Structures are given as structure tokens and as C-alpha cells.
């Protein structure tokens, strides 16, 4: 697998498997002088951490991050030096015996078969490199990316789960992080609905997909480029790189295919303060690949995990037909924990473009 | 604008504006010994060419491609030498006076405002680098990419236009290229519907979005990687880099957010010939970022062009409120000509991953 | 041949063969608002141009550059827009019959044999992609790079030719560009020596190597990085990419292997103006990979061209022993014309690092 | 510091400072199925390890490598899976108090001043990222690179130290690794000379430069490219990225500047086995940027470390003139330990080009 790196000036390389001793990332190109606390990184990892409710995998991982390079201590803060920031998270609760019986079987919907064709060798324990544990490294990198762009706030929410959706009229960002909210939903009324629905899915040993929305505020106008380094392109690429994501869209997204030019284009006026004001945000904050200063809005679809209790037809490595039933410990809705991951990936894309824009044009400090 | 290059081993760099003397691309890393005819490239360009029906822009461009490097002649064929293939297309029908009156205005929905914030300087003639003319260079590169992977067939079709959709039961690939079909629709019955609908849009000076589907057959299993060089990620990134695209999806895409694990995962059996057979293709030919040997299926949404006759509220460069009405020559549905462009971008992604897979693993010739 | 691109933010891609219709480059990432005249680019090309004295190849090429994209006209100036700048130079005097007789022979010292092993196909006319004509594209790109860094002056000189060397005590930059100086030597007294020496070489149908020195003044302190993006590393990489270059060094270079720490390290004092002053420049303006503000000094060795009249033992494509005698039109000392090429490659490296430094640190405007 | 990564398909990212908790590397793109023992990696690290004779720094570091990802165990062997190989080495003997007194001083010849200008913040303990400890990570990566290319053997030797040189007539590769040889010299007779010379340097608190030669045998013909991905260019770039290297050359290198075409070009004949034979190797195994199948030969110059006991004039961060005397524990000749580092960097370049050649051309398995 070539190229486990993304970003150009804010570059993230991740490494590690589900059942190895550790996983981590190297963030190269972080500007010098960025101040943060170790707790800022840990807090993001805690949001993604498994085992926090009955709706996510029961694997118990403390996901404690260690920073091995690239920072100096200054009181209770850390300051980046401009050199590579290496972050490591040890795997604690591997329990690889869970996976023993399916070592030679290809689980339908998983990467097992494709992996074997590609590499001829496969770490069958927990999906190896395809495991969602890899995303912890992204969240750590994203926590640092958030500090790079002054004023940037990146938040995400689960807006759909299987056949159920939120009511957007109830959107409350504060509720997303509420301790009583195991779903990252912004709609308090949806909790009961999602709870009942997902309990049913979980008890059936089934799984279900989800729809996530990420909103980035404080993105300066001017990030991106007209064609191959479009800000929306790099955001979508980053989101598509998350396990189980099957679709991404910006602003009104797929809905724009059904719209007219009159309905779609956001009109502008000069505001009272003399600055441009957009009268709507169908574009999701990006026009022609370049940020406009409006909130950047992206959505992505997470498929249901293919690890389910219902036996499914498949084959094994030796060419036999088999029935596969995936026991182990799995998320009935992996999309829930995709919320902080999606935020991290969007933050990384924006931080990278912020540095690139500064590099090429010198038009922002 | 940094980085007008995409791909790693099959690398494409494009250049050129709508109203400059020419545009083109450099394809670097094309394997030596690839045989093709100049007509193969031209044929793809002709599919994308403007002025071929009343449903696309009336700009008259012959879009004749010249190959300036990287090939040797062998009879009526060209053979690549392994060095950069430079292709150039001259702009003939610029007619830049059309754009004179909006040189200082920001057209709503266009990149004008974002562009000025980013660069502080802007080629207002026809959108400059943001013009859809840039995509001719992609189509030329894609025509070469198609020759790199033995057996690869990449086809596309328009499956939705505004509020109208095709009937998938009527899908006929041959009809897509039919001379009587100005829409790249695979459904013969849809032609009348689309014609009437788009004539209405056109006469109103309006525009409408579209939904495009690309299907790649003959993709060897094993292309891609588990995380950051996922084949689906790079396909989506390539498609998102096309002007006016606001969303992309693979296989069942956004629909998977509403599905259960039982509905989504494609089951497998050993076929009569001893090879694996998938019983469905919800995954769109890619599992865990790696191709499975099934057809690769992607869809993307193209927003309506923002160039419409209805006056729209906007501002100008000097901070005045203005009403903008875009006359010029424009496509009422830019999504139609996006079909060959989408094919080209998918072909480039696959060719690149084919070479990368061969490089890392040596598992294909 | 993969990757005909160099640079990260100021990225140059070149294309074209000696005997194709044209060659050129695409400069991607050039900042917007850079002002220059077409004549600035042409002037650099004219310095590299063949046919200007009896000491360089008699091939007659006007090397007129056309700029096809990425600029707007403003009076008699051109202004970059931030989009890719495509530059093209047509080949006029190909005379490919010269090469006919050695189409199947491997010329000793040339890339012919290695090329055939690599690609299995080869443009034998004038070396194809290996031709020194490719360097015209670099000189064009370098002419633009010079404009990117305010105050940057990059100059080069030939300091050695075969067994003859200049006397550094006579160094005169103005003389390098003197019309009476066909060698880019900075030492007026060396002209007679070099003339007599090279006339002898030329009449014998032989060739000779050369040593070139490049000095870049006005390089801001802080460009580069401690390890893998060292400014000296990227300068050396750029110089090594020039045809026939076999060695590169920075500052005292190879001589430092023979020095002690006391002799090598440049001492510092606070100058009268309160700024740091270096008391010597053994380091060549770069410490730990980062520019210090002193002049950056690099030297490179150009081997003698292998195209000589003396018959040499070799083999042909069919496995026969043959004697090869290269007639054609060649430079008796290719190192002479390497002076402007070396300047261009150093300018490109500095421009790229200037943008990268601005991107990562924001510490220069 | 952006871009602590080198290589395209065999990509190495390193991280870590001299006085942080650890350092390491991530090797991305290593082919699957590469077999090795942990001891193979450790053996290379042991060759570079400090504290092994009085001629190198007395810092005591076990330099034990841990592999954290990308491999499966198979008996006493490890097998790569094709996913990123993360390797970590803990720092044990930091003793940062040694550096306390020069925290605000700029040591002449070191990166201190340039670093502060660039980043505005600096880890003064042991040079931070500029420390030669960083090279342990390269050696680990290089040990893996050696396994990627079948039949590849990369060896290095110290051929000059200060004013002393070896006698090439005595060259003995076996002696290089002899336990009685603290210098990696290939000339047994040179040991006495170097010992006496370096003892003198060491007792004076001085330091001295060195000249290193690397020879790679078993490099298949066809690796590299005619211009910007020249094998010699990438080898030189890799070598220049090593701390304190000031010059690099290939084959006859700088000597070619003084040669004629007749002296320089290597003649060829058909050998008894029908294969091409070169009659000399002035080219150092590379013609036109592409390997010929002959041994690849590179040399590089390492400057004397600037850490010496003699007081030197300098300035401090606050703008004062100071005299700097560097105590600490340092190598009197850092060039000695550069031998395994140089080998590692050459091995990485060759492994990368091997995969790139296979990717583009498919002409090697």
C-alpha cells in the first residue's frame, strides 16, 4: 500500500494495524509556534473512543496519545517547533482470538478478498490496516490541524441513521456534545427515535448506515484553487478515505442535479459593514473550488458495517463456498463514531490549503 | 493556483484558459509502447466538443488536438516512448467581447468573487482557468489512459437532468453514442422527455443540473489501497475536480446510509469456472478501497450553470450592489458534456492505480 | 519516464524531444501578480541558444518562446494570474538525417543503451528526451523563478574547462556577459587560454568537460529545512538533473573533507548596523539545510560530451560489435552553455523554497 | 519543516529529535512479502551506533529498533504486508544538561542561527532535528530497502579523512567490517595512519572532514529516467540530505570536468556470453540518468563537525558578541559513522526506482 500520506504542506502520514502494538501518525509541515495542550488532542480522541455506550463496539481502548517529537514544553502548554510531530497510540485490548475462525474466510462487504488479491498476504486480525482503529491517528492529526488556522471551528453531526433522519428545525450544536447524547445528533428529539431503532438493529445482530454533516466556520475566503486543488475536492477526497464512506457532497450536493440556475446560485449584496454578504449558501461555502468565507458544509454517507450475525454466503481462501457469520465486537452503526473522524479530515484539508494559499499568494498572514 | 497535476505514476498536468491562445496537458509517466491513433484521441474530444446541438454552448471550437512530444510514428499508429506526452488544443472562437460588460461584476454562483479574493487578479474572459474549456485537456489525457490498461472499457451516461430521470429498465449502452441522441442518455425513451424539458429551460434563459453515471469494466482486481490511496477516493477526487460537480458516490453511494448490513454487503460464491462470483454489486466494484474485479460504478452531480438570463443580485469589484444577467453563449445543461469528461477522469484514476499496483506489488504484468 | 516535474509550490514540468515539433514547460504555482516582460524570458533563452560561436553546436535554433497561458497583458508587461504558465519553443532546425547511421548503434557514454533497456523503444534522433535541447525549457522556467523572490540575483560562471582554470583574482561579473566572451568566464585573461585550448579540442573532433559556479545573492535567511528539504539538497538535485552533470557541491564542497572544524566553520559578529555578520562563507550560504542570508554558492561538474569523431568501440541493438564515430553537430564543451541552465535550476529551487517557507511559517511576505 | 519524506513508491518519512523520547521512521510502499529478520535491521543500526570506539561520540545509545506495524511474524522471520512499516528507536542517554550553557548562543557552523531565523523557536538540546541521531531512522529504513531489490548489495567505505587518504590498491571489502577497523576503511594499512591522525585531532578538541564512497552492485539496468528522475540525481539528493554533507559525485564525478570525451566515455563490447560488457566504469554505472547494470558508484564529502573545543567568535540570540566553545560529546570525525548512513540512503533510492521502473514499464518482475 503506497502513499499513506495526505496533504501537501500540512502532511499527515498514518501507520498501524488493529492488532499490532500501536498505531499513530506523523504530521509534517505543521507551522512552528502553534500552542496547544496535550488534553486538546486527547479530548478529540476521547470523542472517537470505542466502548462509551452500548451503541458502539465494546472493545476497550484507552486511546492515550503520546507525542514523541516536534514540540517543546512551555508551562502546561506544548509549542510546535516546525519539525515533524509524531503521535502514537498503543493498542491495549486486541483480543485477537475473536477473529481466529474467519482467518481464511472472505467476509462479504469487507476488504478481505480484495486485500488478498492485491497483496497475497493479509493480517486477518481485525481487518489489519482496513480497521477503523486507524482513524484514531486521523483524529489526533485533525486536533492539531484545528490549531493551525486562527478562528477555525469545525463541527460535525449525525443527521441520518438508516431510515431515520433528524429534524433540522431542532438543530442545536451544543446538544451534539451533550453527555446524554450517544449519537452526535444535533436534534434532541431524535435521541429517542435513534435509540429505539438502533437497539433493534443491535439485538438483531444487524447494522445500519448513517449520514454525517460537517460544518467548518471561520474558513478564510480564498483557500483552494480553480481546478485540481479545489478545496471541495480535497475535502471530499479526505472524507472518502475514511473506511466505509460511499459518497460525499458539498453544500446542496446531489440535490443541485435537480435544481435550476436560479435556485442554485447564491446571490450577494454589500452588507452594512461594507463587506460582501451572501443571501444563501447552496454552494456550501465554496465557489469554483475556492472558499468564499461562508461556512463550508460537507456531508458523507457511511455504509453499514458488514460485520453482522446473520450468516452470509461467501467463499474462503481455498476456493470453497462457506457461510460467514461475524461475531467479534462491532459497532451496529459505525457512522456514529465517524463524526469526529469527519471533522478531523475536514480540518486537515483546510489547514493544508491555508498554508498552501499563504505560500503561493502571501495574501494571508 | 498550485498543483494543476493529478495522478502519481500516470500524471496529468493541464494548463490554459478559455480565452488564451491554447490549452493542453502533459501526460507524464505513460508506459512506453502504448499504441494508438491520433483519431482515438480526437474522437473523444469530438464527443465533448461544443456546438454540436442546440442543447450545448454555441461556441464553435474545432478542438483539434496536436501531440507535441512523447510518441513515435509507426505506420498510421503512434507509439508512446515513455517520455512526457504533450497535447495542445488551440482556442479558435474566443469572442471575448461577449464578456466585456461583466468584467468588474461578480456573477453569482461563479468563481469570480472567490477568485479575486484569492489572487487579486482575474482573467474575467470566460472564467479564465475556471472555464469548462479546461476539460478538453482532461479528455485528451483520458483517451490515452484508456489505452494503458489492457481490456479496460470506461463508459458514461447521463441518468438524470433536473427533475427528470431515465428509466433504468431501458438501459442501452449502444444508444448512448447514437447520432440521434444529444444527451448521452442510455434510455431511448428519455430523449423526448429531455428534449422538451431542456428546450423549455433554454428558452427561459435558465439552466439545469444533471446526474452522470460512469461504469468501468475490465478493471483488474487489486487496484487501490486500504486507506489513503483508495481507488474510490481517487476516482471521487478526480470527479470532484471537474467544474460544477457538487457530489460523488460509488456503487449504492448515499443510499447505503439508509441500508442494513444484510442489504448492503455483496455475497460471493465460487463460479462454475472456479473463480469467485459476486451475487450483487452494491459496492460498485470496490471493497476497502481495492477493486474486486466487478464493474466500477461512480455517479456525480453537476450543478446548473450559473450563467442565466434572469437578472440576479450581486456586487461588483468596487463594492456596489449590481444586478447581473449573463448573456454570452452557455450550456443550458453543462452536465451533458460532463459525460465524456467524467469517463476521462475515471480512466486516468484507473490507469494510475494500475501502474502503482504493478510498481508496489509486481502482481500484474 | 515518470515525473518530469520538480519543485513543490513553484512546480516545473517540462516536455519535448530534440527532434519533435516543439518543447516546453508548464510552471504551476507561480504567485499571482508577478510582472515581467516577454523579453526577460527571451533574454535568458538567448544566452543558452546554440549557434552563437564556433565553440558551441552549429544547430540553428531561434528558440523563440511563446507564453500560452497564465498571464494577462498590462501595457508592455505581462502579469501572472496564479494559474499555470505554459511556455513553448518550436524546434526549427532538426536535420534528423544527421543521425540516420547510428540509429541502431549504442554511442558510448550516451544514454542509448540504458534507454533501450529501460523503455524497449527509443527516439534515436538527437538523443530524444536526453537531448540538451530539453534545457531550453528549464531556462524559460528559471527566468520566471527569478522574478518570484524580491531582490534575488542568480549569476553563473565557467570556472574551469578541461585542464584549464580561471584565476579567481580576476573575477569580474560584468565580463561574464561581455559580447567578446564566448565562455561565460569571469576572468578576462582566461579567454585567450580557453580559446586556444578549445580550438585544439574542436579541431581534433574531441570534447572536454567543464566546471561551473553559480552564486545566488539576495536569498533571504530561513529558506530550506534541517533534513529532507534542505536548500542545498534541492539545489544539488536540480543541478544533477542537468544532462552530463556528474558532481555538485555547496560552498567549500569536497574541500571540506580535508578541513578541520576550525578551518571550516564561519565565525560571526554583530555588525555595525546591529545585524549578524559572517566573517567568511565556507558554508556557501547554507547551514543545516537553511539559508543564512549570505550568498548561496554551488558548483557542478559537466562531463565532456561523448559525441566525438574518434571511433570508439561499442555494440549495436542487434548484439554486434561496432565502431562508433559521432558526426552530427555538437558542442566541443557542453559545459559552456550549462551556465545559464545552472542559474535557472538554482533560481527555481530558491523560488520554490521561498514559497514553501512562506507557506509553513508565514515569516516572510 | 515541511516534507520529511523522500521517495515516491518506496517512501520514507522520519521524525524525532536528539533529546526527545524517541525517533523513528515510517516506510510506506514497501512491497508485500518481503522477508527479513529483526536482526537484519538491528545489525545495520549497530554499525552506525555511537560509543563503539574512542573515535566517535561517547553518547551511549543502545539504538534498539522496534517494528510497530506493517509486518507479520512467520517463524523467526518477519514478512511485510504491504502496509506502512513503522520503526521506533528510543533515546536513552540524552544528558541534556551538557547543552545548557549554549542555549542562547549560535554555534558557528551549526544550524542554530538559520534555525532561529526560520522557525523563531528552536530545540537547542543537541541540535534538535538537525542532530545526527536522526540518521538512525534512515539506517533502519535502508536496511529494509536492501531487501526489496533481489540481488542488491550496497557497501560503503571511508576513503579519505582530513588530509589523509587510503591507497586504493589495498581495497578489501571484507576488511571494512573487520572488528579491528574502527574507520570503515577498506585499506588495512590506513588504520595506523588514521588512528594516529585522528588521535591528534581528538586530543586537540578539533574535528576533521571525510570522504565516503558507496558502491551498489546488483542494480538492474534500466532504473532511473533521462531527466528529472535520474537515478544519479536521486542518489545525490538522498546523500546531500545527510547532515554535514557538502558535495556529492557519481563515477568519476568532478574529475570528468578535466577529462576529454575519449577519456571519459566507457566503451562496450559483446561478452563471451552474448551480453554487453563495459570496458571501464567512468560513468559510475549510470548513463543519461539510467542504470547500465554496472556497479553504481557515488562519493560524498562530510565536513568536520563544528563542535570543537577551540573558542570561536559568534553571537547570541540577544545580539551580543560571544565566544563559543562546544564541549558536549561529539565525533571528532562524523564522517566515519556516515558510511552506513550513506549506504542506507543509496539503498532507498535504488529500491524506489526499482518499484517506479516496474510500475511504469512492467519490464522487471
UniProtKB/TrEMBL annotation, chains A, B, C, D:
The top of its lineage is: Bacteria, Pseudomonadati, Pseudomonadota, Alphaproteobacteria, Hyphomicrobiales
Q: Which UniProt keywords apply?
A: Amino-acid biosynthesis, Aromatic amino acid biosynthesis, FAD, Flavoprotein, FMN, Lyase, NADP
Q: In which pathway does it act?
A: Metabolic intermediate biosynthesis; chorismate biosynthesis; chorismate from D-erythrose 4-phosphate and phosphoenolpyruvate: step 7/7
The name under which this protein is listed is Chorismate synthase
Q: Name one GO molecular function term.
A: chorismate synthase activity
Instruction: Decide whether keyword NADP is in the record.
Output: yes
KW Mitochondrion (keyword) present: no
Xref: CDD domains: Chorismate_synthase (cd07304)
Q: How does it assemble?
A: Homotetramer.
- Its Enzyme Commission number(s) read 4.2.3.5
Amino acid at each position: 500500500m503506497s502513499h499513506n500520506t495526505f496533504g501537501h504542506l500540512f502532511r499527515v502520514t498514518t501507520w498501524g494495524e488493529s492488532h499490532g502494538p500501536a498505531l499513530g501518525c506523523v504530521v509534517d509541515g505543521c507551522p512552528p509556534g502553534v500552542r496547544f495542550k496535550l488534553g486538546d488532542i486527547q479530548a478529540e480522541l476521547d470523542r472517537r473512543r470505542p466502548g462509551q455506550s452500548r451503541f458502539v463496539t465494546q472493545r476497550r481502548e484507552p486511546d492515550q496519545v503520546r507525542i514523541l517529537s516536534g514540540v517543546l514544553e512551555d508551562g502546561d502548554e506544548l509549542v510546535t517547533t516546525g519539525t515533524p510531530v509524531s503521535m502514537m497510540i498503543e493498542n491495549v485490548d486486541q483480543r485477537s482470538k475473536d477473529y481466529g475462525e474467519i482467518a481464511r474466510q472472505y467476509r462479504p462487504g469487507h476488504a478481505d478478498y480484495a486485500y488478498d488479491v492485491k497483496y497475497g498476504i493479509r493480517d486477518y486480525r481485525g481487518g489489519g490496516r482496513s480497521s477503523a482503529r486507524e482513524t484514531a491517528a486521523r483524529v489526533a492529526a485533525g486536533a492539531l490541524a484545528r490549531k493551525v488556522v486562527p478562528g477555525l471551528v469545525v463541527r460535525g453531526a449525525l443527521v441520518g441513521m438508516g431510515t431515520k433522519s433528524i429534524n433540522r428545525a431542532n438543530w442545536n450544536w451544543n446538544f451534539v456534545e451533550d453527555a446524554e447524547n450517544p449519537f452526535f445528533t444535533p436534534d434532541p428529539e431524535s435521541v429517542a427515535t435513534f435509540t429505539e431503532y438502533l437497539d433493534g438493529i443491535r439485538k438483531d445482530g444487524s447494522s445500519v448506515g448513517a449520514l454525517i454533516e460537517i460544518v467548518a466556520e471561520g474558513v478564510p475566503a480564498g483557500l483552494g484553487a480553480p481546478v485540481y486543488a479545489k478545496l471541495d475536492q480535497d475535502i471530499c477526497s479526505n472524507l472518502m478515505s475514511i473506511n466505509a464512506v460511499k459518497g460525499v457532497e458539498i453544500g446542496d450536493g446531489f440535490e443541485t442535479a435537480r435544481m435550476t440556475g436560479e435556485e442554485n446560485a447564491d446571490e450577494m449584496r454589500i452588507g452594512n459593514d461594507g463587506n460582501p454578504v451572501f443571501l444563501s449558501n447552496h454552494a456550501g461555502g465554496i465557489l469554483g473550488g475556492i472558499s468564499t468565507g461562508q461556512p463550508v458544509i460537507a456531508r458523507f454517507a457511511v455504509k453499514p458495517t458488514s460485520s453482522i450475525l446473520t450468516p452470509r454466503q461467501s467463499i474462503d481462501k481455498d476456493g470453497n463456498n462457506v457461510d460467514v457469520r461475524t461475531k467479534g465486537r462491532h459497532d451496529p452503526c459505525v457512522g456514529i463514531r465517524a463524526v469526529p473522524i469527519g471533522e478531523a479530515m475536514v480540518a486537515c484539508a483546510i489547514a493544508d490549503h491555508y498554508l498552501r494559499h499563504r505560500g503561493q499568494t502571501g495574501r494571508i498572514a
